[in-house]
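Hello,

I think I submitted the manganese (II) ion job twice by accident. Can you confirm which output corresponds to this input? Input:
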Amino acid sequence: MIRNGWEDTVRIHEYQAKRLLKSYGIPVPRGAVAFSAAEAEAAARFLGGERWVIKAQIHAGGRGEAGGIAFANDLDEVKIAAERLLAKPLVTAETGPTGLRVKRLYVEEAVQPARELYLALYVDRSTGQVTFLGSRRGGVSITSGAVPRPEEIVKIGSDPDEPASGRAADELAARMTDDEAAVPQVGDVAKRLYRAFWELDASLIELNPLALLTNGRAVALDTRVILDDNALFRHPALEALRDDEDTPPEELEAARHEINYVAMAGTVGCVANGAGLGMATVDLLKLRGVEPANFMDIRPVATREQIATGFRMMLRNSSLTCILVNIFGGGIIRCDLVAEAMVLATREIPIRIPVVVRFAGTNAELGQKLLANSALPAEFARDLPDAVDRIERHYGKHPGGSTASRAVAAWV
Ligand code: GDP
Ligand code: MN
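Support: Only one job matched these inputs. Its output is below.
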């Protein structure tokens, strides 16, 4: 799963997801969270039993194969495993090469699965339906990319008029296992999952694996819950679970100022209002082989001061070679407001690299006039294609990479 700065999702940790799902009657192993090796040992002692699983809590999957899931047969082993997991960032197929720091562990009683299934609910965008997805082959086999054969995947859209979507859940269960004893168990889990999905305003809930034990009982060994943050205001208790530890600090700072900001590897600063226009701008540059340094979207509610803060943040990037400002003025974000914010920002951080400005819509001319009368080295594009042409020419002279900061230094 991709962590995405402007996709409105909230990810919560496995142990929090399990606690939530448990409140809907979905069976999960007993477990306790730990922030240190000593706490992990205490957690195992508290849980009792003789075999434990120690699981790194990060916002990424693929932990099992990357060594992020450890098994222990006594309390000493719990402590040693916990020390190892907390010692260094965990790199999995989903984290990127630098990995994610492990700050929390989840210690659970270990169970012995006879089979591992996959069960998920998500919103299918092509049908608009909340849809069940099931497979007989869950657990590591799915995450490691061993794609199940089509006959091993069950996909059933649910009927919003049918309470708990019982029929879809029962059909799913019957097709997910041949074990007669397990069918009602899986069906029951599916129905509870359905209720949880609606009540939590989730966009994805995944049980992988949903383990079948030798006695036919179904237990969710791993869960992934993604909530829709547009609905978070309806769930103040869930908002508190939000863990932004894995979000880059500049994205959080920007979000506090009504700006969506995502740093990228290139050298062309990009500013737009609206996520759609922002992405189109980035796409247009990439089509020309021009590498953006960031994605920045000014939200409609942003004030002049907040927009200025967004600009200052972007300008802190020393590898910028030029900047493209693409504003479609309308509603609250007018071109002159953005121009004022730019002037404000550059009063503190003077810009000496080319700034290509495409203003269209409300107060475009006024915005241009404000910039033309300022010290800002702005050039005005007739339209978006013209703006991209101009950026391409500047970029051609200073494509960036290792020379980028030198180019800026030369102009300064
Ligand atoms: P992921 O790799 O990030 O998806 O982490 P999971 O929580 O799914 O763990 C990976 C694998 O470890 C699972 O597919 C199971 O095979 C195994 N596993 C997890 N918890 C338990 C447990 O309590 N008992 C046993 N025997 N295996 C487990
Ligand atoms: Mn898993």
